Amino acid sequence: MRRKPVPPAPDSLDRLWDAHRAVPLIPGSEDDCCGRVANRLDVTPDEGRDWLVFCQSLGLAREVSRGFERVRDDPTRDALRAAFEANVFGAREALDALGDEPRSADAVFDAFEPAVPNWERHRDPDGWESRWRDRVARLLDWAVLFGAAARKPGGYTPVEESS
User: Which Pfam families does the entry mention (predicted)?
Assistant: First the structure.
């Protein structure tokens, strides 16, 4: 299943590892885990939930019968990239919208826009576009951190997967 939450991309993966370490090793309820992540990252509870779900998408946390628990593996950047592309809604589509020449986040959004679900458009007819433009920019910034895209003068370009 591809999940939607995408927190703002930090300057380095250190913040992702902080979020990962905030997820308990012994399963805790979703509310407890969200609160723990929020406290450790100094964000709101809703933002803590986004980080928890994002960690789950990347294989850094998993939901079990008693709540959420930290996955003890330390995946490589390539493994994180693969999980990001496979499990975060819009990641593949944003990367597919990149061309050979650098493209701005707005240009990528214009190519990405047909992938925005209709129910999102109907849920908030006046605000969906702004929210999804921000989402595409976040996806691109995470793609840079995971080595799937590069930020160059004039915008973003794809990076071939390492072997």
Answer: WHD_halo_double (PF25947)
